[in-house]
């Protein structure tokens, strides 16, 4: 009887493996949807569209971008977690959507185990930018102004739990100031309000705010990086500005629903790797002050390590921000 059960189980496993291999061999047969957890025009959206175009070429199928904004990215991740695990629905995420969100929204209908990592596709750098008529002209003056006017400075971000929110939290914590953090349904609407002087400034990634700084629509204050950015050579690093404690270097990665066959994950990973190594992506990333992962950082395992690290990191930082 035991022998029969073992043989039966072995046969089932063999059929499953053959089915997975067959699925991967034919994959993809139709367009793939990439869910972006924020409104169009923000950092995640720009990076997603840049990478998706080249991944589509590598896979021989179009990758369609679907923007699903709300709740700091958790609305989109809930949608992605419920998708059929066949590789035709994937999502782009970051330390906010795929790590900090579990502390901020403890009652989410998904967990880190609801997703399998595909690949890290970009490294990003956080910037604080102010409306162009803000009275403080440098970081030292800004901090002094903020301390003299507690709670009166408004800094916009892409929603509680987003990577931009983490930039804000890291900044105000390092600076020791009391500022009002204003959430939007994406980085682009926040930047629009900063340009229109509806808010005092934004916490944003270089990918989405650099152009506006260079066009003098807003004024860059500081970048949370160890080196200056080539696209913003006049913008001081946090150490140069006198606040080395402010660090804002992030990542963007691709995820699939739990249960997606490993053979399909491997095919998506290979396409992502090919995409970020193309001249088109390298040029676009350079224009955005965004960096592609190093050769040894393309694996799903590396992305999983980042998620595990940041879930713990932001749990310590954001425990007081949890939504009941």
TrEMBL record:
Entries under SUPFAM superfamilies matching the protein: Periplasmic binding protein-like II
Listed InterPro entries: BUG, Bug_dom1
CDD domains reported in the protein's UniProt record: PBP2_BugD_Asp (cd13576)
Alphabetical UniProt keywords = Signal
Domain of life, per the record? Bacteria
Record's signal peptide: 1-24
What PANTHER family does the record tag this protein with? Answer: BLR1237 PROTEIN, TRICARBOXYLATE-BINDING PROTEIN
As for family, the record states: Belongs to the UPF0065 (bug) family.
- Put simply, this protein is called ABC transporter substrate-binding protein
